[in-house]
Design goal:
By secondary structure, the protein is an alpha+beta fold. It has helices at residues 2-24, 30-41, and strands at 44-53, 56-64, 70-76. It has a three-stranded antiparallel β-sheet, covered by helices on one side.
Length: 79
């Protein structure tokens, strides 16, 4: 009986760690990345591209700044 409780507690702990890890590695959407880039640059988003670099996904966002220049911002999909 005691061993069974210990195994159950161990299982619950491992499950909690797995859920926390999955929640911590949440990917963001293209819209969220565009909003982040717009907030950082203070400009207007012109386009969003998705790039796959190895196993990573990166958003490449073109932003038109207030002074009329086009700036490219890269945002990692995994935050």
């Amino acid at each position: 009986m005691r061993l069974r409780r210990l195994r159950l507690r161990s299982f619950v702990c491992v499950l909690a760690v797995l859920v926390a890890t999955a929640a911590g590695a949440r990917g963001i959407t293209a819209q969220e990345a565009a909003a982040q880039a717009q907030h950082e640059s203070g400009g207007k988003v012109l386009s969003v591209q998705v790039l796959n670099v190895g196993k990573r996904k990166i958003y490449r966002i073109k932003v038109l700044t207030h002074d009329g220049k086009v700036r490219v911002v890269q945002v990692a999909a995994e935050q």
